[in-house]
## 1
Amino acid sequence: MSGIAAAMENALVIEIANAAARMVVEEGVEWGVAKRRAIKQLGLPARTPLPDNDIVEDAVREYIGLFCAETQPLELRALRELALVWMQRMQAFRPYLGGAVWHGTATRLSDIYIALFCDDPKSAEIALIDRNVNYEPGSMKGMRGELVDVLSLSSHSRELNEEIGVHLLIYDLDDLRGALRPDARGRAPRGDIAAVRQLLQQDPSSISKP
C-alpha cells in the first residue's frame, strides 16, 4: 500500500470513529452499533473495515472534551456512585465494573455493566429475587466475545434524576483470572469495589482514566 493510500485509509478510519463517537455521546448508542451506523451514515460500503475500540475511545474522549467538558465529569461520577451501590448489593458475587463507566467515557445516557463471578450461575438471580428486584434475563457478548447470561434492571439515579440501565453479566468463578488481564493499552479492563471507591475520591472536574 502506498503512503497516499495508507493516509487516505487512516483518514477514513478516523472519520468513521468520529461519527461513531458522536452517536455514543449524544445518543447513548453502544459502540459496535455506532460503528456500523457510522458507516451507513457516511454512505460507505457495508464491508468497510470498522475502527477498533481504542480508536473509537480516543474519538469519544475528544468529543467529550470539546462538547461535554462541563457536564460529563459529574454525570460520570453519578453513574459510578450508582454502580458502587449495586456492587455492594451484589458483593457476594465478586463484582467488577467495566465498560464506559469504568473507563471514564460514560455520560448520563450510558448504561452500567458489572461482571459477577459466581460459584453457582443461578445464585445472583436468586439474590435479586430475594431483594424483590425487577429484572429481565437475557444474554450479551462477554469479555471474550462469547454469549453470557445477563440480568438487566433499571435503577434510579438521584443525582441525575433518571432511570439508569444496570446489566449484571454472569460468569463462572474460573473466569475471574482472565477478566483482570490488562488490555492492549496496559490498563485494567475492569475494577472491583475498592478500585471504584478510589475513582470516586478523585477530582470530579476531570475525566477519569483508570
## 2
Amino acid sequence: PSTTVVSLQNGLDNVARLRAALGPEYDVVAGMMTFNVIPTEDGFRQATAGPLVFGPGERPDSQRRVQQLRESLRARGFDARVRTDMPAVQLGKLLLNLNNGLCALTGLPLAAMLANRTTRTVFAAAIREGLEVARAAGRPVGQLGVLSPRLVALALGLPDAAFFRVSRAMLAVDPAAKTSTLQDLERGRLTEIDELNGAITALASAHGRQAPINALITRGVHELEAQLGTGALPYWSPETLRERVAAALR
C-alpha cells in the first residue's frame, strides 16, 4: 500500500485503469516519456529529444518519491520535469504521437515519413482533427516543446522547401528512428493503436463527432495486425494513403 506507481505509457486513460485495478490504497501518478527509443545490438538508443514528465503525486510520500525520481533521472543526464497539468500534457503528447499509426501504416521510419509531403500532410490533418475533437470534448491541450500541436500541424502542412527551412528541430531525428507501433508490427506483435489514433476516434464518438482520418489510420493498422505471421506486411504507399484519405473524407 505504500507503493507509488508511475505510468509512462502512451494514452489518456492509464491512470484511471491502474487505479481501478490496484485499488485506492495505491497512489498512481501520470507520467510521460516524450522521446523515441530504438533497439540496438547493445541495448537501446534515444533517437529524438524530449523530457520525461511526471505529475506531482497526491500523497505526501508520493510527492517526495516523485521529486526523488526526478532528481535521480536528472543526475543521469535526463531532462526530467514535474507538471501539475498532466491530463493536458498527455493529450498534447498524444496529438504529436499520431505519427505512430501513420508510420506503422506506411512502414516508414520517422524521418522518412516527415520528409514525404503526402505522409506529412496527413499527419498534420490528423493533428488538426485531434485538436477539433479536444475542443469539442472541452479538454485542454498541453505544450511540451517550443511549438504547440497547432503550430506543429501548421509547419507540417508547408511546402517542402519551406518545411525543411523552418523545421530543423523537428527533423533532427535519428534516421533509423521508428515509432513504437511500427516496431511492434516488425516484431510480429499487436500494437497500441487503439490508445493512439484510436483514442482520438473514441473521444470524437463520445462527443457526437467524427474523426475520419484517425479512424482510417486505426483501421489500417488493425488490418496489418490481422496479417501478422503471414509474410511481408502490405504497408500502404504514400499514394495509397492519399487515395484512401480522400475516400474517407468523402
